[in-house]
Design brief:
The protein is an alpha/beta fold. The protein contains ten helices and eight strands.
């Protein structure tokens, strides 16, 4: 039985979508069967970070409503065990049936080891749809005060509506910022109130990979790509070192 991991953030600009793609690719590279679902209805971007912008991809609503079987999910051109369903652009998240989405996730658990759901930023209807039936949640935050405040609100909302086991990833870390503010990752954990899953450095290769239309791991095995691999291995139960700040 596979697990559903909701990837969430309290605000935009945390790098949530690129992190979701990086961890999904890393899990697939470890031999796991992975399904990615872009749940950011109306504002889909996960295809860019996965390097699948040119691939024909079904919206998850087509499978959710049994118009197509889950086996028709698009296959990644470089990782044959990574599949993808995109978000619809002509619907609103509050109009989608949560029970049908739960049915889709149940199908994903039967067919895949991991299903990563990229939720929209914030705690609105799309967030609730993504986390309500998830097994795990990865709260992506930055280290700045605004991101931490929003991350804390996201953690609170998670606790109210989901039984998912939640952990945080502090993304786009700039070493100089932490040094000048005399803050630490422990301060981020205290501010949000969740255990740490990983820390990821600011890395120009993330934007470069999206611009080139290729997954991050194809450009580099260091920086953010290495951090994503460590997160994937922790999800698989392997102990991995944290980035040294």
């Amino acid at each position: 039985m596979g697990q559903v991991l909701a990837v969430v953030s309290g605000k935009g600009g945390t790098g949530k979508t690129s992190l979701c793609a990086g961890v999904a690719c890393a899990l697939a590279a470890e031999g796991q069967r992975v399904l990615c679902i872009d749940a950011d209805v109306g504002l889909r971007n996960l295809d860019l970070s996965l390097g699948m912008a040119q691939e024909p991809v079904l919206p998850f609503t087509a499978v959710m409503r049994e118009e197509y079987p889950l086996s028709r999910a698009a296959v990644h051109p470089r990782l044959s065990n990574l599949h993808f369903l995109t978000a619809p652009v002509t619907e609103r998240p509050e109009n989608l049936d949560p029970q049908r989405f739960a049915w889709l996730l149940a199908q994903a658990r039967e067919s895949f080891d991991w299903c990563l759901v990229d939720a929209p930023a914030g705690v609105g209807a799309g967030f609730r749809l993504a986390v309500q039936f998830a097994d795990l949640a990865m709260v992506v935050t930055g280290g700045d005060p605004a991101a931490l405040r929003d991350g804390a609100r996201t953690a609170q909302a998670l606790e109210e509506i989901s039984r998912a086991e939640a952990k945080i990833v502090v993304n786009r870390i700039r070493r100089r910022f932490f040094q000048r503010t005399r803050s630490t990752v422990d301060d981020c954990m205290d501010a949000i109130g969740l255990p740490l899953l990983g820390i990821v450095p600011e890395d120009e290769h993330v934007a470069l990979a999206a611009a080139k239309g290729v997954p991050l791991f194809q450009l580099t095995q260091k920086g953010a790509a290495l951090a994503c691999r460590h997160i994937a291995l922790r999800l698989l139960g392997c102990r991995q070192p944290l980035l040294n700040l």
